[in-house]
Design goal:
The chain is an alpha/beta fold. Strands 3-2-1-4-5-6-7 form a seven-stranded parallel beta sheet, with helices on both faces. Strands 10-9-8-11-12-14-13 form a seven-stranded mixed beta sheet, sandwiched between helices. β6, α6 and β7 form a beta-alpha-beta unit. α4 packs across α5 and α12 packs across α15. It is globular, with a radius of gyration of 22 Å. It starts with a helix and ends with a helix.
Amino acid sequence: METDNKNQRKKRIMLITPMLHQGGFERICVLTARLLNNLYDVYLITFTTKDIFYDVSGLHLIDLNLGAVEGRAGKIINICKRVRRLKRLKRELGIDISYSFGTTANLVNVLSKDRDITLAGIRGYNAISDSGAGLIFRNADCVVSCTRTMEAKINKAYHTKNSCTLYNPCDLEEIKELSQREPYDADKSTVDFVNREGTLIVSMGREDDLKGFWHLLKSFAVISKELPASRLMIIGDGSYAEYRELADNLGISDAVCFTGALKNPFPLLSKADVYALTSQSEGFPNALIEAMACGVPCVSVNCMTGPAEILAEHYENCGNQNIVYEAEYGILTPIFEGVKDLAPNITEEEKKYAQVIIGLIKDKAKLQKYREGAMKRAKDFGTGRYVMDLTEIISGV
């Protein structure tokens, strides 16, 4: 009697990301591959391995060698090449589930559908309005959002076949272990900066306008006047040349440190007194969870999407983006309006954000409350919960 070979073997999962340079969804893609590697036959697909940042040792990595190209015509041709190459790979490998991360990968994934079930991972709020979003949302077998708010907005705007929410994972044990190591990839001046006396405020993210770092620097200028021993450290990839100039113009350059990209930021992050997030928008801010896992109290703008769902037990009650919410696990502040402004003037919004942080730093009982709350909440986003939720999704599609 013949047996169904497909039912006898492990499911074959394809995880697709455009690149593996430093970035939030790239990190989640690699971590997902590691977490699923013993449960399924996992293939990690990237359009190019140029500037690879993450450790992919032990993973089945396939490079399509079809990186980004210039010009509209070139981009269209490149998409067609990626689709053809990926469709052939899906067929040759007998892929059951194809899970993509980011708009570019999602588009290629749904267009290359063969016999596989396509999961389109939506990692950023702006992805809802990206070019090709409608095509992705209507054709993916399941749209996987990283926040409930995002899933609701997508379902309201588009007719999806199926949708769900899957929060990003945080490897709590690894972060704990890494935080206890020496900061081997930070230079001596950075380590000396962290070890100076006074309050340390930290933020993490690549040099990107969406992160709103000019707001953070201006707010910190207010903080440093009231708390002269305070320091600000920004961890992330980029030269930050214009922000260094802004810090100089604000007269705070000696109290600000830009570390650049660090493979292990946790020894530095764990020494922070406050984590500050000033983004214009987020998908699911991984760095916020990582800071909480290190026991760092968090102050975040109530931007779309993610901070409210992370910091508040009932995020739906924090819908007013113009007031302060002292939520269960952190403090949500009003969003910043307006466009990027590198002049050394300071707005009322930036002054108000600064006052929230100042108030938290001065209130030792509240600081301790949010330190404990941060660590408690981080456990809700552990890898065990993520694997359980993702395997349910895979079984259900």
